[in-house]
């Protein structure tokens, strides 16, 4: 519900990595923010610090999620299982969390008659394609994780068409930054490995590429999607820059000149895409999305945060 005219937003997974950064960004914009989280990876205290009212609950609990969404203006669905390799090992769990979760969130949004619903997807639904990824590509997911995200996108389209829920799908590229201590991404892993004096692990030859976007830029894009008033759209949010894992290692070494950093190569992993980056022209045009954080600058900010939170 709105308080003194301020819009209200419920964020599933609000106490997690992206959620905490989003909460801070929306609070700075004057929004009333509510986090719905089961604390499997997020922390209650991080949600409070971000300015959220925190509601404990699981996205598989439809009744609890519907109750938390009652009276809100907007809903952002971030909560999901995001590990590609684990999805290959246990696809049933991925479907349960990622497909069932977004269905419950959409039902809650429908019943609350929200003004906007944002679904956090990724490039995984597209599978192995010649980059860049963009909105006109035909999805061909390679992993159960990618398939569940594609199912979530389809449900968003169906709820927009069947119930008039104003949905927006945002396909995130590889996000990094502060509060990522529980995230299994390569940047978070490298931060922890360097600080522990361990080798950086590179799977395969390191020539696989990704689009690394700083979380501060990403949450600006989410906020702009909420404020846009658009419905039924899909957007890619990244930087538009293709960076190899070897290039990331070099950037990490630049940010840690005071550390001896060794690299260990291991066999490539099944289900992972070899090359990927995003064409963000549509988001630039319709959302005024302009990510401007350089990779080295973003890594430096991430290092500073990790060093100040070594006990977490």
Protein model, in words:
By secondary structure, the chain is an alpha/beta fold. The protein has 2 domains: 8-175 and 213-240 and 281-287, 3-Layer(aba) Sandwich (Rossmann fold); 176-209 and 242-276 and 295-308, UDP-galactose 4-epimerase, domain 1 (Alpha-Beta Complex). The protein contains 11 helices and 13 strands. The protein has helices spanning 17-28, 44-49, 62-69, 84-89, 91-112, 144-163, 186-195, 215-228, 245-255, 281-287, 295-308, and strands spanning 8-12, 32-37, 53-56, 74-77, 116-122, 167-172, 174-176, 200-203, 209-210, 212-214, 233-237, 243-244, 263-266. Helix 1 (17-28) packs across helix 8, helix 5 packs parallel to helix 6 and helix 7 (186-195) crosses helix 11. The longest helix is centred in the N-terminal third of the chain and has 22 residues, at 91-112.
What is the tally of helical segments? 11
- What would you call the shape? globular
**Number of structural units classed as domains:** 2
- DSSP, total strands: 13
Short description:
This protein is an alpha/beta fold and 312 residues long. Helix content is 42%, strand content 18%. The two termini are 33 Å apart.
Name its key features:
seven-stranded parallel beta sheet, two-stranded parallel ribbon, alpha/beta, UDP-galactose 4-epimerase, domain 1, single chain, 2 domains, Rossmann fold, 312 residues, 11 helices, globular
